[in-house]
Amino acid sequence: MGEIVRIITSDGAVMASAITGTDIVARAREIHHTSPTATAALGRSLLAASMMGNQLKGAEHSLTLQIKGGGPLGNLTCVADSAGNVRGFVAHPEADVPRKYEGKLDVGAAVGTDGSLTVIKDLGMRDPYVGSIALVSGEIAEDVTAYFAESEQIPTACALGVLVRRDNGEVITAGGYLIQLLPGADDGVIDKVEAGLQRVGYVTAALNEGKTALELIRDVLADFEIEILETSPVEYRCYCSRERVTRALISLGPQEMTEMIEEQGAIELTCQFCDKIYRFSRPELEALLTEMTGSGGD
User: Fold this and answer.
1) Burial of 169 (0-12, 13-18, 19+ CB in 10 A)
2) For residue 195, which of 223, 168, 236, 218 has the smallest C-alpha distance?
3) What is the structure's pLDDT at 297?
4) 44 and 269 in contact (C-beta within 8 Å)?
5) Which of 133, 151, 155, 220 has its CA 20 to 30 A from that of 210?
C-alpha cells in the first residue's frame, strides 16, 4: 500500500503532492515481469498518474497517462482513479538498454524522445479533456513538468524515482512529488521552492532513508508553513471483471462474434493491466451471440 499526501502552503502560493509507492511499482513488476529499466519507466509513470488522478474532484473521474516515445519499451499507459489508485502496462516489458553509468538506469533511452505525452481526463462530460505535448526527455518527470507548463499553464516541479536492486531488479523504493505554483506566486516563492529542490536532491535517496511522503514534501518546502489537505492510501488496482469483459465481447457485434466462434471456438482474453485471464467456452460464446441476435430482433 502506498500513500499520497496533498498540502498547500499557508500563504496560498504553492500546492503540492507527494507519494510513496514502492508497493505499487513492485506489484506492477510482479504482474508484467518487467526488466529493470522497464520497471523504472513504468513505475515513474504510475507514480505520476497516481498523483495527477488524485487531483481530480469527482469520485467517478479518472485520468489516463499515455507516453509514446518510440523507444524499445514501446508505449506506456497508466490509468488512475480520483483516489490515486492506479494501474498500467508497458508494451515491451522485457526490453532493456545499457546503463547511463554504473547504477544509473537510462529510462530516457528506453522510453525514447520521438513522440508525445498525452493526458486524458474523464470528468463525466460528453467528451474527455485531452492534452498532449511533445516529449522532452523520456525521463517522465521532466515530461510531466513540461505537460503542466504547456498544456495547463501551471508552473510545476516534478520528481519521480524508482530504485531497483542491481542483481535481481527488485524494487527497493519508489516515490515522488508534484509542486505547483498557484496564481500570484512571486519570485520570492520561486526562489524558496528552487532552493528546496536543490537541498533535497534525488527522491530515491531521501526515500531510501525512510522518509514518508509528508516528510519528503516538508523537506522540499521547509521554507514554508504548510497545511495538510489530505492523506490517502493508494494501491495498484485493476477494475477488470468478467462482466466488463463480457460487455466488451457483446460490443463487437453479431458478425464479428460469429466469425470468432467459427474460427476459434473457445477464447482466452488477458487483461493488459493485471494479466488476469478470462476464458469463454464455445457454448458461452454461442449463448452471448443468441442474446445479441435476440435483442436485435426486438
Assistant:
1) middle
2) 223
3) 42
4) no
5) 155
Q: Which residues of 34-69 are buried (b: 16+ CB within 10 A; e: fewer)?
A: bbbbbbbbbbbbbbbbbbbbbbbeeeebbbbbbbbb
Paired with 64 in beta bridges are 79, 120
Q: What is the CATH number of domain 2-234?
A: 3.55.30.10
Residues 6+ apart with CB under 8 A from 169: 29, 34, 35, 36, 39
Q: Residue 17 above 60 pLDDT?
A: yes
pLDDT at 242: 95
Residue 298 above 60 pLDDT?
no
Q: In what order do the strands lie in the sheet with 129-134?
A: 86-90, 76-81, 62-68, 116-122, 129-134
The stretch 167-180 carries a mean pLDDT of 96
Question: Tell me: the pLDDT tens digits for 232-282?
Answer: 999 999 999 999 999 999 999 999 999 999 999 999 999 999 989 999 999
CATH code, residues 242-296: 3.90.1280.10
* Integer CA distances (angstroms), 289 to 124, 177, 178, 200, in order: 31, 49, 48, 59
The pTM score is 0.91
Confidence of residue 103 (pLDDT cuts 50, 70, 90): confident
pLDDT band, very low/low/confident/very high, at 296 (cuts 50, 70, 90): very low
Residue (of 80, 78, 79) closest to 91 by Cα position: 78
* Residue 19, all three cell numbers: 507519494
Report angle CA 144, 147, 148 to the nearest 5 degrees.
95
Q: For the chain, where do the domains classified as CATH 3.55.30.10 start and end?
A: 2-234
